[in-house]
Amino acid sequence: MFEARITQGSVLKKLVEALKELVTEGNFDVSNTGLSLQAMDSSHVCLVSLTLREDGFDHFRCDRNMAMGIHFGNLSKILKCAGNEDTITLKAEDNADQLTLMFESANQDRISDFDLKLMSIESEHLGIPDQDYSAEIKMPSSEYQRIVRDLTSIGDTVLISATKEGIKFSTSGDVGTANVTLRHNTTPEKPEEQTIIDLKEPVALTFALRYLNNFSKATPLAPQVKLSLTKDLPIVVEYQVGELGSVRFYLAPKIDDEDNMGEDEAQS
Amino acid sequence: MFEARITQGSVLKKLVEALKELVTEGNFDVSNTGLSLQAMDSSHVCLVSLTLREDGFDHFRCDRNMAMGIHFGNLSKILKCAGNEDTITLKAEDNADQLTLMFESANQDRISDFDLKLMSIESEHLGIPDQDYSAEIKMPSSEYQRIVRDLTSIGDTVLISATKEGIKFSTSGDVGTANVTLRHNTTPEKPEEQTIIDLKEPVALTFALRYLNNFSKATPLAPQVKLSLTKDLPIVVEYQVGELGSVRFYLAPKIDDEDNMGEDEAQS
DNA sequence: GTTTGTTAAA
DNA sequence: TTTAACAAAC
């Protein structure tokens, strides 16, 4: 059987809220090392990879590896029934066709249990190699959210350029053009407000803002986000979920790449 | 003539907001004992019974019994014009075709009066016998609201089971199944958070969630709600409106009743 | 932490 | 128009 307990149920709620729009359905792969999910978004453009470590749970037991096919919309509906302060326990028998979710209020006054029907989903588990990236940028997740939201109102794609000067987000559209630059800054008042640029090599890549914007739904999960960039490779947008694990979003760059996309690409 | 004055006008506003969706029109029956209303909802499925005692008002006078036909949507429009801190006075001449509402701000700075046109409505006053119920449950009204709202996202009907263990709300639908259990609890920090189960006999009845959900519109009126259950009889959902009186909602159970509705009634 | 009101989006 | 997200107040 599989059983996983997390005291801070709000984390699970936020996770599913962050993913449900991108991933309509996917497999929760559970093993004795924890719970993971890998799924393409419905348009097969970007990849979501969730890893929750066994030791990040307050209790974790998995006798046998399982792939549980989850309809994220339905899981979201059920998690909406959990209080933010509830302890959540996930439970499934081996080869079960349902996942049981138990919600317990802090004072045990209220106990709810929900059975979520599981689906059978083709899993195409991709090995994602650990990469050495040309640039790794850590920045406040709220800042990332703000930038991609703002730029979305100007253009459809963004050129992200990392240099030793800082990281620049550029777009253009009918309205005009826009550039937002963040400088390396390791000493703000609060550590969550740091912007750290770890640069091996300058890099500039173009991405569809729509997806970068969607990734920012994970903002409530973590105060910081990490962007990893290498020429011709997908960007990785990663949120650390406390001690539990992380969510990573992968998005391939636009092929018409980095050399000549300064001010005037409105006519695409 | 009829004249009734209530210092805390917000109570009247909340009352009408709670009822107006269920009761599009109904008679305010006034007599020297107070004001009452009995009305079926527009689909003739459930019954609303409002009782406001004469001595709950700050001033009450009724020379002659009257049935004042009220269009609740219009009354709501007028009450929206009253401040929450206003004193409200209802006034009508004998056999008048209009009800006058006066709003006075606490410091008398502002005085408004509105005339609401009355309608002639067939009144079908039902005698509702005082019943001995198998189970009476008092619980926080916010908890009731939360449960029926949550379960509405899973299924259409709810099985309410009262046992000495507690009270359980169960539903099922396409997503899966759901059970929420509340335990008897007379000693939380605050008295409004008590859950009191007064059980003469275990009982389990099924109801349409849509209506139970609608009843919860009365939540702002009272911190606690009382559910009264007896086999084959309508559930009573009752809100005590301070010292003024009470609102009671009656809803008949589904006929396919309590014996075999545990886990697997998805295929309805 | 909960509620309410406002605003944005579907 | 309805509903969900966000912010502000309690």
UniProtKB/TrEMBL annotation, chains A, B:
Mostly located where?
A: nucleus
Extract the InterPro entries matched here: DNA_clamp_sf (IPR046938), Pr_cel_nuc_antig (IPR000730), Pr_cel_nuc_antig_C (IPR022649), Pr_cel_nuc_antig_CS (IPR022659), Pr_cel_nuc_antig_N (IPR022648)
- Which SUPFAM superfamilies does this entry report, sorted A to Z? DNA clamp
Q: Which GO terms describe its cellular component?
A: PCNA complex
Q: Where is the signal peptide?
A: none
Q: Pfam families from the entry?
A: PCNA_C, PCNA_N
- Location of the protein in the cell: Nucleus
Could you tell me what this protein is called? Answer: DNA sliding clamp PCNA
- Organism of origin is Volvox africanus
- Record lineage: Eukaryota, Viridiplantae, Chlorophyta, core chlorophytes, Chlorophyceae
